[in-house]
Automatic annotation (TrEMBL), chain A:
InterPro entries: Leu-bd, Leu_Ile_Val-bd, Peripla_BP_I, TAT_signal. Belongs to the leucine-binding protein family. This is ABC transporter substrate-binding protein. Gene3D superfamilies: 3.40.50.2300. Pfam families: Peripla_BP_6. The keyword Signal applies. Coiled coil: none annotated. The lineage of its organism: Bacteria, Pseudomonadati, Pseudomonadota, Alphaproteobacteria, Hyphomicrobiales. GO terms for biological process: amino acid transport.
From TrEMBL, chain B:
The chain crosses the membrane at residues 12-35, 42-66, 86-104, 137-156, 184-211, 223-244, 250-272. Keywords: Amino-acid transport, Cell membrane, Membrane, Transmembrane, Transmembrane helix, Transport. The lineage of its organism: Bacteria, Pseudomonadati, Pseudomonadota, Alphaproteobacteria, Hyphomicrobiales. This is Branched-chain amino acid ABC transporter permease. It comes from Chelatococcus reniformis. It is a multi-pass membrane protein. InterPro entries: ABC_transp_permease, BCAA_transport_permease. One of its GO terms (molecular function) is transmembrane transporter activity. Pfam families: BPD_transp_2. It is found in: Cell membrane.
Amino acid sequence: MTHHDHLMSRRRFLGNFAFTAGAIATGTGSWVINADWANAADGPIKVGIATDLTGPIAYSGNSDANVARMVVKQINDAGGILGRPLQLFIEDTASNESVAVGNVRKLIQRDKVDVVVGGITSSMRNAIKDVIVARGKTLYIYPQLYEGKECTANLFCTGPTPAQQCDELIPWLVKNGGKKFALPSANYVWPHVLNEYARKVIEANGGEVVFEEYYPLDQIDFSATVNRVISNKVDVVFNTIIPPGVGPFFKQLYEAGFLKNGGRLSCVYYDENALSINQANEIEGLASCLDYFKALDKSDPVSAKIQAEYDKMFPGTFQFTAGSAATGTYRALKLWEAAVKEAGKLDRVGVAAALDHAKIAEGPGGPAEMVPGKRHCKMNMYTAVAKGGAYEIVARSAGLVDPKEC
Amino acid sequence: MEQVLSALFEIASFGAIVVLVVLGLGIIASMMGIFNFAQGEFVLLGAYVTYVVHAAGLPVWLGMVAAPFAVGALGFVLERTVVRRFYAAPIVAMLGTYALGLIIREIVRGLIGGLYISVPEPIGGSINIGNMHFSTWRFMIIIITALVMVGSYLLLAKTRFGLKIRASLENPGLARASGISTPAIYGATFAFGAALAGLAGALVVPVFSLFADLGIRFLIQGFVAVMVGGVGSFAGPVAGAGLIGVLSAALPWVIAPVAADILVFVLAIVFVKFRPQGLIAGKGI
């Protein structure tokens, strides 16, 4: 082979490679799902889903998209809304804000959807909300648990807020763990704002915060932190370190004898997906507080029915959990359905006005209702403890818990 | 006293983990002059093989034994089919191996559903001395790293194969004229580097759990280690890895972790500025 040939083949190889990479990058990621019947005079109502189908949190995004498929199918099977079928548009936000803005713009400008549900991280919500709400003049519903403080008009939140996750859980932790809290955290907005609220509740309940410390998001060795926890005789580790750090952190705590000495782990984003991060004995007794756990299917027939329907439609790796915003997506679509029915039309002003006080009697974990004027959602909250690789419900809120936002 | 001892143990164990991960990268960089950006994904594959073997119901240690062979074999195939075409252009080689890494990472992400999956250690629990608890598996990692390091050194310094590798590195033309098949040597060296990464992944997966970005986490640290240690020799990257690993584990004990993370890189850059040839200069062992 001459030198010239060699160059040519490399150039051709790179050309082909670039083409393939481009095709992979742009070819997938958009889905349109039509109803079986699309013969209504006004045409279908268009529902947009913008979520992370690829990237590090794709397991959450795919669950959310699956829930949307399920709910839209159920609504269509029951005759649609206002006699019109729903048409579902799913776009990938790819865990990448700049890709997301482009794809969400497609939903708004090309598909002209009537509502957008989605976004998982706060940075994603902040990146796409302007495209949807301000320039797009479209309704936006954000389904994930988050740090609160999102008070934009026409943007509704259906996931738990710090108040909902702390007000029930922290008194329980003081009673069932102890008074000395440590707040090890990943260094981004959610832990900072959540800790600010958690600290108030801890102190109001007679506890104290021994240390609050922030780590780079990709830190995976926590020996110094574990040492601080052990030597300060901390009772409760209220953790907001996220994967990949959280697994090694809990493991190192376990190996240092934290659980054996009676320590209590707590982590409010921990759902069924998170159980696989550690071996069961390393997180025995971990307490979480969410709007839904799979374990509810024993006591709540409505939750059991929704869970069973989901598992039947989507057997596989993408689970129906609260931490991945799947339950928030369910509530978002059902509350929006109720609002559209009440408004009797699809213009944003009318639907937003109805959504402001929308209620659903049935959902995962129980009923839910929007707090008028607050654009956040009241819901039941459950405290659950990890036992042998599954959750056990140990406490339930007395009724719907107020989000205390806006 | 107790606190100092446990600090020393934890710092040594993380240092050992970084050395283990960087070893393969260093050998490929030093002996072949290729910066293999897919090295992190070879680590990931080693972890994945261990998980697959464990998920099939077989003992974890069997997966750890299989991982270096499986990843080494893949490394050999990739060298034959792809990497070999890049030897003339090191920059293109970086892009090419980065692309390979990306493909491997996304395939593994698909296979594990993007989740974080725990893999148990073959020997779990901790060694308790008084009030101190030392993780048994981290202790094992320190020992295995020392053994692998000595083994690799002996292979490169004392065997005929090692001599051929060094000959091919220093003067490929003369090596070929002396009857050494340099393409075969390059293939074997790349496979060996990949196998070491596979072993590293297999050993660290019980500590960090399996996730698609496992390799990426170590890639930057690995390159900084090679840069600080010095390219060209076996000892350079190893020394650099030890230094970076110990620094990144030790600094959070004394200053805020967020600052420590940055400080490691700042120190590395300052060091390279004043000693661009690295800790250990020159070619050879």
